[in-house]
Batch of 3 targets.
Target 1
Amino acid sequence: MNLMLMGLPGAGKGTQAEKIVDTYSVIHISTGDMFRAAMANETPVGVKAKSFIDQGELVPDEVTNAIVKERLGQADLASQGYMLDGFPRNIDQAHALTQINQELGKTLDAVIDIQVEPKVLVDRLSGRFICRTCGATYHKLYNPTKVEGTCDHCGGHDFYQREDDKPATVKNRLDVNLKMNAPLVDFYQQAGILHQVNGDQDIAEVFAEVQTILDQIK
């Protein structure tokens, strides 16, 4: 069983990925892992990718696609399925993945898209705040201070948010991801393999939905 996992930042993709790997014994393949392995092993495409990264440049699609093909063709995937995470990121990469699978005699069986309303994700992702005095970290939803406005550790009252955690920054990041994901959602919907899961519920309930989908196709 070969899968692709989609979801906006904060949707719980990482948690569900772990559960899918544990339950279905597929190999979790993230873009970062592929790049690191290819560069560490100094494969030809790994060396090429490193030349771009070392110069602070984006790795071109053709190099990324070559790294994916190299990884999907490795022996450990001959008997086990894969779960792609972070690839494809655009429609050209999606077409390349289709071609790669055809050349390797594989098929992409399902795309799991974990959906959560952006407003909910803004609350999740922008809830972190930090005590300026001692550096203790809190979250307004999941880990608030015991006494509002007072640090549990040092009793300080001065808190701040990192720029990346501020609501405006988070919203902008989500908007960028939404625009990137929209063509992929359409592409895999038309292919008939897109399965959308409600990510705005308990972790176990989300995974129960995922299991229902995967049990039907494995």
Note: The chain has a mean pLDDT of 94.
Target 2
Amino acid sequence: MEIIKGGVTAAKGFCAAGLNAGIKNNEKKDMAMVYSEKPCVTAGTFTTNKVFAAPVKWDKDIVANSPFAQAVVVNSGVANACTGKEGDDACAAEAKAVSEALQVPESAVLVASTGVIGAQLPMDKICAGIKELPKKLGSSLEHGTLAAEAIMTTDTVDKQVAVQIEVGGKTVTVGGMCKGAGMIHPNMATMLCFVTTDACIKKDALQKMTKAIVSDTFNMISVDGDTSTNDTVLVLANGMAENDIITEDSKDYQTFYDALFYVLRELSKKIAGDGEGCTCLFEVQVKNAAAKEQAKVLAKSIVTSSLTKAAIFGHDANWGRILCAMGYSGADLEPEKVDIYFESEAGKLKIVENGKATDYSEEKATEILSKNPVIAIADVKMGNEEATAWGCDLTFDYVKINADYRS
């Protein structure tokens, strides 16, 4: 697998664009479009919040029932959530406008929104943007970056990843972009993710691997414990690499799985590391658990602990907060067996052995915790399973950003 520069335009046959449609009432880009020259098989996973946005309802139906998709249109600034029938009608109107602009079926159009909940989409601006976006479509890295910037809300950087692999002698590319910085919690978050690939793959195989990978990537990140209304991961495969079709039983299934896993994992980490107001990515590894689910529950409990996140911000090796978070997680645990380490580019330090503090150096611990990223490792010594979760530190700026989000 080769890591390359790029995002949604890296794969053959995909174009993208981003522009300012005036939705945010400022100069920032707020609409994006992704388009494939050829129809795509699609896969998707969506928010588990029972309060879900109109675009989530629309996309679920397209992924489940449409034979293919060919375009995605995204806006930032307004979430189109809690908007009733008017919100549903807005999705249909967007699909119709894209259909007319690109000459694709309405059933081949996916839509997504992110931003303030409860506000109706300004459809005059949305439709004007949809008419303009096709004129700006392009397949360069720059075009992909414009799209990645247009879907940002409180993100501080655009988020893109791309890789290439060999499948049956053909070069296959997988690239993606995402957004997300707040209202981020396991079971997905206020995050949108769009992945494109020129692989030739069966829809059921793509859906199966997407669901499994999201479980170990996007569902293992947390910034603030809030699960959003708009979470969406969409994967589009147009088959233009002309490889032998990948099925669940083919020898190339795992090769493509690993590439998609890498892209989704790295995008997940980019979201966690860009958490609102954060200063560092906080990674939690749980080792030697008795079961995978036990490891995941423990890792997520640590990474979501506000007290632990605050200690990371303060570069304080307050290991008791980690052990406490493990204890209230609900997972089986034998505290007297647990070892805890902190690790970063400054080194690795065991701070707890068999549930008790080691004679560690506070100065060295502070040095390790002053770097970015910071890794906490909890060895529970109960088996051979492991899991990793990602989050960030909790800072003063998180409150400042969210206290006046709508203004």
Note: The chain has two domains: 2-273, 281-403.
Target 3
Amino acid sequence: MERYNEITNKNQREIVLLQGRPCAWGKCVFCDYIADNSKDKDAMVRLNHEVLSRVTGKYGVLEVINSGSCFELPEETLEEIRNLIHEKKIQKLFFEAHWMYRHQLQRMREYMGIPIIFKIGVETFDWDFRENYLNKHADFTSPEEVRAYFESPCLMVGIKGQTKEMIARDIELLKKYFPLGTVNVFTNNSTSVKRDEELVAWFMETYQWLLDDPSVEVLYEKTDFGVGD
């Protein structure tokens, strides 16, 4: 599994895929990504140290992801990230967190001491689809609620059961309320959720302009950031 890469097109940065404890929620119906975790703290710390040792700081920006939220990384790893920020003169950090951690984001910002762009897996702003089908356990009702805590929502498109109207509204809200965002085109995996090829084709044609939008990253494959497998 590749755990380090450089993103050189939009928002240039280094990105690392680290290992943390099992996702605190871990019940999203579409997700089989959460298997990349451990309960062996020493092994996680060693692995994460090896990955973080590849960071050069060449862009002054670092994104750290894991199969859950940044708050599930070992304390030793978080301390190493903080030290790396100073050593490599990193000026901005990207982290991801579940909605349940929203009240802890400021504490993490203070701990790291530099601006943090917090991503969140919104998947969709359609409450019924998000909660009753995807089982996200993120009960916000408006994009304004999300924006009060997070800068960059991650949307998911191309799932059977979604509609064009739902996706159009999600993109509209992303552009209206957030400075950054990611759109993940769903890929079939080991879960029961299935990809809607017709919907994907419509999205890629209708929203081709997003590929040139500097504030939105479109991931057609789950490994488009160059990490994972």
Note: The chain has one domain: 4-219.
